[in-house]
Amino acid sequence: MPASRPNPWLALAGVAIASFLGCIDFTIVNTALPALSAELGIALDQSQWLVTAFVMALAAFMVSAGRLADLFGRRRLLLLAMALFGLASLAAGLSDSLAALVAWRVVQGLSCAVLYTASSAIVAEAFDEARRGRAIGLLFSANGLGLALGPVAGGLLVAGLGWRWVFLLNVPLIAIGLLLCWRHVRESVAEGPAQRLDLAGLALLSLTLPLWVLLLVQGAVWGWASPLALGVLALAAVLSGLLLWVERRVAAPLLRFDFLARPAFTGACLATGGLAFFYCPAFLLMPLYLADVRGLDSASVGLLLLPTTAVLALLSPWAGRWADRDGTRPVLLAGFTLLAASALLQANLQGFSSWTLVVAAFALMGAGWACILGPSTVAAIAAVPAADAGVAMGMSWTLHNLAGALGLALAAALFQRVGGALMPGYHATMVVLAGASALVLLALALLSRAKADPTLSLTENNP
User: Fold this and answer.
1) How many percent of the chain have pLDDT more than 90?
2) Is 0.85 topped by the overall pTM?
3) Range of the domain at 221
4) Is 325 found in the same domain as 377?
C-alpha cells in the first residue's frame, strides 16, 4: 500500500524517473545499433527493427493503455508497466539473438505506452491547478534530459562497458522509481456510469495502428506502389473503417471522437502532432549534418545536440509556469513560432556556416519544443472530464506518434526526390517543416477564437 501521506513531489520524482528512462532508452538504442549488429552478426538494416518494433508497440497500445489505466487504476497499471519495463530491459541486455531483442523491445514499447499516458494523468491528479503546469513541465524536463543524455551516454556505455549495458542500466534505476511510485502515488480511476472496457475497439485498434506505423516507416523502403505496400495500405484502411463503425455503436467507446468536437482538445492534438512531425525528421537529419557535412565524431555530435535537448530540459519547467499563469494558448503559439524560426535557419545551413548560427538554430528548436510538449499535455487533460484523462492522453499521444512517423516518411520521400543528396534533402525538409509549423500556428490561432462555449477554447488562466 502507498504511504498514508504521499508526497506529490516524490511521486513526481518516481514518475519522472520512469519517463526519463523511456526517453533515454530510445536514443541510446540508436547509438548502440552498430556495436550490437557487429557482436550478434546481423545486418545493420535488420537491427533497425529494434526501433521500428518499439514504435509499433507504442502506437498500438497508447490509447488502450490510457483507457485501462482509467478503468483499473492509474497507479496499479503504472507499477505493472514499470516492473515489465525493468524485466524487458534485463532480458534484452541478456539476449543473444535479434528475434529475442525485438520481442523484448515490443514489451518495452507496450510498457512505455503506459508510462507516457498514465504518468501525465497521475501528475495532473497529484497537483492542484495552480501547480499542475509546473509539475508537468518538470516531468517533460526529465524527458528532455533523457534525450539530451542519450546520444552521449550511449556512446560512453558502448565504448566502456558494451552495448548490453544500454539495457541493463535501466534495471536499478527503474527499481528506484518503482519504490517511489509505490509509496507516494495515489490511486485514481475513472468515475461515473457506463465505465467499461471496449474489447472490440481495443482489438481492432491494436491491429490497425501498427499497420499504419509499419506503412509509414517501411513504405519508402518497399516502394509506395509495391504490392506489399499496397496490401498493407488496403488492410489498414479496411480495419480502420471497421474500427470507426464499431466505435460509433458501442456504449463506452475506446476512441472518444466527441472529444475532437472540442476546440481545446483538437488544438492540443494538433500541437502535439505538429511537434512530433517537426522533431522526428529534424532530429534524424541534424546528427547527419554534423557528422557527414561538418565531420564531427560521435561524442562531438552528441555535444552539439545539447543546445536542442538541454534547452528543452531547462525551459520545460519555465514553460509550465507560464502556462499556469497565462494559459496554454500563448505558450503553444510561441512554441511554433520558435520551431518555424529554427527550421528557416536550418534551411540555410551550409558546410561552412558559423557554429554560432548552428547553435542558435538548434537552441531555437529546443525552446520551441519546451513550449509545446508540456503545455499541449496540460491542454489535452484540461479539455476533458477528469475521468477520461487517460483516454485523452492516449489519443493525443497516438496522434503524436503517427505524426512523427509521417514526418519521417515525408523526409524519406524528399530525399528520394533529390537523389539521396544530404544537403538538398536537409534544406527541402526544413522548408517543409517551417511551412508546417506556420500552418499549425495559424490553426491554433483560429481555434483559440472559439467562444461559443468557454470550456471549448484553449485553456486560459486569469492571474
Assistant:
1) 24
2) no
3) 198-251
4) yes
